[in-house]
């Protein structure tokens, strides 16, 4: 039982990271229609922004985290200008290949600046653990779940209580109508990319202490975020959260109860099953294209 | 008349490939062989994506099924490659049909992510099913192909095999483009509802396009196994699927000439960027992005634009010809 509680918490922690990555992916997809294959590299950049500020520059952690997220926000803006704007008229496949090309460039930019040797990104609650009914739970895992919960609440407020968030939802529904209503569509689209990059940054900073900071960490995260998005429902924010937590739990529980070699097959098998039986996922996107 | 374009394409491939084979040094010859193998796979992808509009990010899994099929049959079962290749290709075609039947109801990015999941699953299975696939160590000591006493194992000898196969596949693809099936595929891509209204069984057409693409992929996989004499899960990851798609887009989607050009360009591009040292992949990504932004119709589209500009009179017939025929 103690083991089980421990696994559940670890699963929720890694699932929270996937959920944040998936939320960033979904925000960009809803606002711009772009299926961002560089989403995993965004998280990798977040981790390495943390390495740069926390490990290399030795800043105290509140400043280091702030600086890392600021770097990510600037990166989101740069991505909007240099990748999204030139590609936005392209077909789905052009955008897929384009974002993959950028992710190759991002991965190698990280490789050139940080080298192939993995880093250890420390956590502010390093090495502390709490005991819960016999289970030893790392404080970092609990902090990750808590931070994700706060982020989700913040996003809910943003999208439902602020004019920027409501404007973003309007753009996601109908760009033309939003423009006719006098919304600054381009500014809102740019903000979607920045928000996605910052969320990926938070995910990367929290993931760093759980995995090693490795320049190749982006692809596995992107694949998990895709699986989470499909399972939860393409384009749905609650879906991204549920899907992310589900993928994290299935990975951790699958590894210890079924087979550690085939743990990833479980999430992808379930993703394909969802596509075949319920392509709109748990929460569903009410659009065509599912056949 | 109907066979003129396929014959032209096949002749061009053999002649240009043969000349390159005489002038290129050994190492570049190896790259040329790899690019021809990719070209076979990309022509296959052109059936699914270029003609029928099915976005597949799982093409490398079918290349892998062909490669692993040949590898297992020749090493574990001790078959001759001549017998193993057709069996591996047929098995891949059947699997593609079985997979395609449920999967091809999906469209757009749903299909893209489903096929991506398929490719990732293929990787997980091949790297863990050690009894069958040797796991991450792969399968080595695949026998080379020989015809009597002539062995296709050297780079020069293999080049002729690859050129022959590519020419054959390219000619068949060009002939198919002109056929009823080819036109039906394009109709399904352009407007699924309208083509259904005219009596086309769109589900059947999509599955046929998918199976045809898997057959070419399996042929490429067999060639790959015979060339490298070794297969491993790393050779058939979803990154390879994306590379195949990139080759098709960079060359010019929907055209056979584009598929071949794109395969050759993207195989040699990293080589040409070697002078950048460790930064070459950094620029590779930027360059591919640049091609997508500035040449949205690929190299073939660029060629058409240039030829249209040089010919002052708008020769619509000649400008359109490559688009409609190649």
Detailed description of the structure:
- The complex is a heterodimer of chains A (291) and B (326).
- Chain A has a domain of 197 residues.
- Helix content of chain A is 73%, strand content 3%.
- Chain A has 11 helices and 2 strands.
- Chain A has a two-stranded antiparallel sheet.
- The radius of gyration of chain A is 19 Å and the shape is globular.
- In chain A, 52% of the residues are buried.
- In chain B, helix 2 packs parallel to helix 7, helix 2 crosses helix 12 and helix 3 packs across helix 10.
- Chain B is an all-alpha fold and 326 residues long.
- Chain B starts with a helix and ends with a helix.
- Chain B has a two-stranded antiparallel sheet with strand order 1-2.
- Chains A and B meet through helix 3, helix 4, helix 9 and helix 11 of A and helix 5, helix 11 and helix 13 of B.
Notable features of this structure?
heterodimer, A: 291 residues, mainly alpha, two-stranded antiparallel ribbon, 73% helix, B: mainly alpha, two-stranded antiparallel sheet, 76% helix, disordered C terminus
* Largest interface (C-beta under 8 Å): A-B, 45 and 42 residues
Q: Approximately what portion of the residues of chain A adopt beta-strand conformation?
A: under 5%
Radius of gyration of chain A: 19 Å
Number of strands of chain A: 2
Distance between the termini of chain A: 44 Å
Count every helix of chain B, treating DSSP H or I runs of 4 or more residues as helices: 15
What is the overall number of helices of chain A? 11
Mean pLDDT rating of chain A: 87
Radius of gyration of chain B: 19 Å
Shape of chain B: globular
Going by helix content, strand content and strand pairing, the class of chain B is: mainly alpha
| Spatial order of the strands forming the largest sheet of chain A | 1-2
Assembly state (oligomeric): heterodimer
Low-pLDDT sequence parts of chain A: none
Number of distinct beta strands of chain B: 2
